[in-house]
Every structure is written in structure tokens, then in C-alpha cells.
Amino acid sequence: MKEELIVKRFENQVAISPESLAVSCGRLSISYDQLNRRVNLLANYLIEKGVKKTLLSLLSFLGL
């Protein structure tokens, strides 16, 4: 599936260069490692709240 490819590529980038810049907006900059940790926290929170994995896959596919 396409969303699995996106996730795998992101995880590979985290492994290759965890401290490299992943996102920058104004004065805020986040490394791949920081972004990965935040994404995992959000995903776990949503799962605990009962959000279905299908919805999480859809959000991932949409880049949200």
C-alpha cells in the first residue's frame, strides 16, 4: 500500500539522519527524530481514544 511506503521511507530517513532537519516553519525547526517521536505520541493518543487504524492510515496517506 502507498501509505506503508511513505511510513517506511520516513522511518528509513529517521534511521539514516535522525538529527537532520525534517520540518521548518518560521523560527521552529524539528529534526526527523523529534518529528518521529511526536508522530508516535499522537498516534498512540489517538489509538487510546478509540480512533480506528483505518482512519490513521487515511490521515497518513493524506499527509496529515
State the helicity in percent bands.
Answer: 55-70%
SSE ordering:
HEEHH
Q: What would you call the structural class?
A: alpha+beta
Q: What is the count of structural domains?
A: 1
Task: Specify the number of helices.
Answer: 3
| Portion in strands | 5-15%
Average pLDDT number: 82
Number of strands: 2
Shape: globular
- End-to-end distance: 17 Å
Low-confidence stretches: none
Q: Report the major sheet.
A: 2 strands, antiparallel
> What is the gyration radius calculated from CA atoms?
13 Å
Strand order of the largest sheet: 1-2
Structure in words:
There is one protein chain. With 64 residues, the protein is α+β, with helices and mostly antiparallel strands. It has one domain. It is 66% helix and 14% strand. It contains three helices and two strands. It has a two-stranded antiparallel ribbon. Strand 1 and strand 2 form a beta hairpin. Helix 1 packs across helix 3. The model has no long low-confidence stretch (mean pLDDT 82).
Question: How do the helices and strands line up, and which of them pair or pack?
Answer:
Blueprint lengths: L1 H15 L4 E5 L2 E4 H17 L4 H10 L2
Antiparallel strand pairs: 1-2
Helix pairs in contact: 1-3
Summary keywords:
3 helices, two-stranded antiparallel sheet, single chain, alpha+beta, 2 strands, 66% helix, 64 residues
Compact summary:
The chain has 64 residues and is α+β, with helices and mostly antiparallel strands. 66% of the residues lie in helices and 14% in strands.
